[in-house]
Amino acid sequence: MAERVLMNGNTALGEAAIRAGCDCYFGYPITPQNELTSYMATYMPPNGRVFVQAESELAAINMVYGASAAGKRAMTSSSSPGISLKQEGISTLAGAELPAVIVNVQRGGPGLGNIAPAQADYFQAVKGGGHGDYRQIVLAPDSVQEMHDLTFDAFDLADAYRGPVMILTDGRLGQMMEPFELRPAVTPGTDKPWAVTGAAERDPNLVRSLYLVVEELEQLNLRLQAKYREIESREVRVEERMTDDCDILLVAYGSSARACKGALNEARAKGYKVGLLRPLTLWPFPSARIRELAAKVKTIIVVEMSAGQFIEDVQLAAEFQTEVLLENRLGGFVPEQRDILKRVEGLSKC
Amino acid sequence: MLERVLIAGSGGQGILLIGRILARAGMLCVPHVTYFPAYGAEVRGGTSNCQIVLSDEEIHSPVPDQFEAMLILNQESAKRFLPRRSDTTRVVLNTSLCDVTDSDSLTTIPATDIANDLGEIRCANFVMMGAYLASSNCVPAEALEECIRMELAGKPPALIDLNIEALEIGLNHER
User: Fold this and answer.
1) Are A82 and A28 in contact (CB under 8 A)?
2) How far apart are CA A31 and CA A93, in angstroms?
3) Which residues of A are less than 8 Å from B20 in CB distance?
4) Over residues A240-254, mean pLDDT
5) Is residue A295 domain-shared with residue A149, that is, in the same domain?
6) Could you tell me the end-to-end alpha-carbon distance of chain B, in angstroms, rounded to an integer?
């Protein structure tokens, strides 16, 4: 039986990275993700891995670029303001088709904001915070167990599709402790014939995102777009609860989804036919499934810790088949179970 | 079973430590546990608090809006959190540092004075935890003692024993 331990989300994620074969971690401190950087500082070197506290977020993401180009599993982590600083590097990783894992333990914004949990970096994560036509896979855990499990997936997806993968979480999931089952360590099996590992006995490889010849850059973009369509067709992941017979569909991710799970149980106990769809992948987005459910339900309530970002993707997917309402909190507040329940009860009175 | 616990005091009183130990002990005997610390800006002398939920059912929020129990270690926390208790909240109040207004509905214990008498003022948190365990049946004292040894592994054995002694004094304190 797997070992059951009690850790907070940040450290559960760090332990998963080590077990997933992360060779190099580069980071710069920021609350509320510091336990992750601290955990990597403590446990990477004794495991024969590389830990560097970089001089800045920019340095850290570019160190990830270097390590990844050399064929190593590399990651960085930060929280909202620090992730903004990394955007140029993320775009460059995407352009150079380099695998990387980037963790954003979101806090309240804009600007330096505060250190409370938030989901206001949704647009930045799923629409591409950096420049150019690129996408990154975005994974959204809602428990400490998933902070652990999805980290293994993040490294595998990054290698499989050769690009940056973001784990988009928040201060509440990073700070809270919960028991979870440790997954056994794995040995990464991905062959990386493109990596710059020394060309003494082969033709040299070149890793770059600069293509001055327009035909070449168009070809790169077409290849990237084909890859993104493949990801969209293969990697969408959702959790659904009681969607078979629901009239009211809650759609939420991360900490907001946890509050929805509580509201769902309470609402069902009171006789309201509520269901929940929770994307585990924010990109690729579960548009097809939301479109299907939108055709059946009377109302969709989107619950988010941002001012109406996540709801835009739900609205696009729902294609005006049903009303889509927003229930949200801003600035570091997490939506409460009772507020979501009140919203459900209010609807039924109309 | 649902036990939502708030522990609050000042930075340096070991608030987060006893919270983590309670969560760890809870994990040994309850299916679902969460622990959530007030994080970031806390400093020695400032305020500190954490919230623990022990439950038979899946826990949706690690930050509850109601509590079955509150452990209040200083006056600032009493002012801030006592208004949030319900009629059924069991409160353990450190009377060494808190003004007592309505002792009838509270478990009162001079935890800091007791810890001082033991020769280690920093044990007041475990005196409080003992007094809480006496009023609660969700975590057996033995499980908590085991977790004190786990959490403080590597600390001087005399200090660990002293903390367990403080816990037992709290457990057996006449109220």
Assistant:
1) yes
2) 25
3) 177
4) 98
5) no
6) 25
A148 plus A265 within the same structural domain: no
CB spacing of B37 vs A178 below 8 angstroms: no
> Identity (one letter) of the amino acid at A339?
D
Cβ–Cβ gap B36/A334 under 8 Å: no
Q: Which amino acid is at B154?
A: G
* ipTM field: 0.93
| A17 and A121 part of one domain | yes
For residue A14, give both structure tokens.
Answer: 């760090």
- In chain B, residues with a C-beta closer than 8 Å to the C-beta of A81 are none
Quick check: B20 contacting A, CB < 8 Å?
A: yes
- Tell me if chain B has a CB within 8 Å of the CB of A337: yes
Hey, how many other C-beta atoms are within 10 angstroms of the C-beta on B174?
A: 4
Task: Measure CB to CB from residue A179 to each of B33, B41, B65 and give the nearest one.
Answer: B33
Q: Which CATH architecture has domain B2-172?
A: 3-Layer(aba) Sandwich (3.40)
Higher pLDDT: B147 or A128? It is B147
Q: How far apart are the first and last CA of chain A?
A: 51
Range of the domain at A110: 4-192+205-234
> Closest Cα partner for A299 from A287, A309, A311?
A311
Place of tokens 């064929």: A71
Contacts of A176 in chain B (CB under 8 A): 34-36, 62
CA atoms of A191 and A131, how far apart (whole Å): 29
Window A:219-278, CB contacts with B under 8 Å: 258-259, 261-262, 265
Identity of the residue in A8, A31, A259 whose CB atom sits nearest the CB atom of B61: A259
User: Same domain for A253 and A215?
Assistant: no
pLDDT of B43 = 65
Asked if A338 is an interface residue toward chain B (Cβ–Cβ < 8 A), one would say yes
pLDDT of residue B42 exceeding 70, the answer is no
